[in-house]
Write a structure and sequence with these properties.
This protein is about 70% helix and about 0% strand. By secondary structure, it is mainly alpha-helical.
């Protein structure tokens, strides 16, 4: 009943799932509904109505595949949890299955509403970040690209183990090339690092944090080795790959923050600063590398402040602000640089004895950008945040007149 004589999404799902071992037909129809929704990315949602008077099994008990087990488990979740998942997924334009898989693997069906909300938001944000990174990421080996595509499809269907296995095969393909021409070795190391970073993102979205951290560490090591090969052989390592190295360090630091390991977070962000500082020193005229150094200093400042090290945080924030001010002065039309100054001013307000001074500076910069019509719509909320922080410190707009 589908195009060119093939099955429609509903018929295909019905054929695939109606005989799920040990699952009665009424229970199987809910997974069929979910499978159609997942595979059509929400374009189709079948309406189901049952009049069966008793349980009926189309197949005997047996071992379920990963997808079948997920769909069967999803069918038994309460409506309030399903609604929570659907709302979080819709806000991120993502499929439902990865969030259901995260709920079940992390036992969130037994957690309270607030904890579920927080951790599902983390899983959803990680899925978005993972897919953003996957888009446009290339490898010179078509087999690696095919395996990454398989992993992405499996992950979207909630088949986390199949996704991880596909990434492992991609990593093995690149890792098997241990020697050869330096340029080939460099490309393979970068590709292997990319796959490990993607695998880490999958694990992070599945809320498997220890495993994700191990993969981030492996990716970071491979990126670093690739840079060493490039330096030793005087080969160019393309800028996007070097940026992905920094992103892997940043994400590893963020995940350490999430797990409450402030010392490990500081170590990751300090290494990020070291990498960024070397690049900025090698190309002082490169505004992008200078901006990366400024941002890395903010991350170090955040980590030091979380540990109570306010002098160290102040030093890092201050240096980052200095770089940001120079960039905003030299490139006044680049809104990102101006917003970077606002962020630095807000952070300075958290660690100095003059919070109102720094917050007023941030508010003034935001007001100027808005008056010029260049403040991005998704940043207009910053004005309210800064005003609220000023009010917390006793400032009122009427009192300033």
């Amino acid at each position: 009943d589908g195009p060119a004589g093939a099955n429609s999404p509903f018929a295909a799902a019905l054929v695939r799932l109606i005989g799920t071992a040990g699952v009665d037909i009424r229970s199987a129809l809910t997974p069929v509904q979910q499978d159609v929704y997942d595979r059509t990315r929400g374009a189709q949602l079948p309406y189901l109505e049952s009049g069966l008077p008793a349980l009926f099994f189309a197949a005997p008990s047996g071992t379920l595949s990963e997808r079948e087990a997920l769909l069967a488990a999803m069918a038994g979740l309460p409506d309030d949890l399903r609604g929570q998942i659907e709302r979080i997924a819709a806000a991120r334009a993502m499929p439902l299955a990865p969030l259901y898989a995260a709920v079940l693997s992390a036992g969130l069906n037994r957690a309270g509403w607030e904890e579920r909300e927080r951790r599902l938001a983390e899983a959803g944000d990680a899925w978005v970040q993972h897919h953003d990174r996957l888009r446009g990421l290339e490898s010179f080996d078509s087999r690696v690209m095919a395996l990454r595509a398989e992993a992405a499809e499996a992950f979207d269907l909630g088949e986390t183990n199949r996704a991880l296995a596909a990434y492992d095969r991609a990593i093995a393909l690149d890792g098997a090339v241990a020697q050869g021409a330096a340029a080939v070795l460099l490309g393979r190391r970068v590709s292997e690092a990319d796959s490990r970073a993607l695998k880490a993102g999958t694990l992070r979205a599945a809320l498997a944090y220890p495993e994700a951290l191990a993969e981030y560490a492996g990716a970071v090591d491979l990126y670093a080795r690739a840079e060493e090969v490039a330096a030793a052989e005087r080969l160019p390592m393309d800028r996007p790959a070097r940026v992905r190295f920094a992103i892997a360090l940043r994400d590893m630091g963020y995940l350490h923050v999430t797990t409450g390991n402030s010392a490990a977070a500081l170590a990751a962000f300090t290494r990020l600063e070291t990498v960024a500082r070397a690049r900025a020193a090698a190309a002082p005229e490169d505004a992008g590398w200078q901006r990366d150094l400024s941002v890395s200093l903010e991350r170090v400042g955040d980590a030091r402040r979380a540990q109570g090290g306010l002098p160290g945080a102040l030093a890092a924030y201050g240096e980052g602000l200095g770089i940001g001010l120079r960039l905003a002065r030299d490139f006044p039309s680049v809104v990102e640089f101006c917003l970077g100054v606002v962020v630095s001013q807000f952070k300075m307000a958290q660690v100095t004895g003059e919070p109102v001074r720094w917050l007023m500076g941030a508010l003034g910069n935001l007001g100027r950008l808005k008056a010029e019509g260049v403040l991005p719509p998704d940043r207009e909320g910053w004005i309210g945040i800064v005003r609220a922080e000023l009010a917390r410190h006793g400032w009122h707009p009427l009192a300033a007149r």
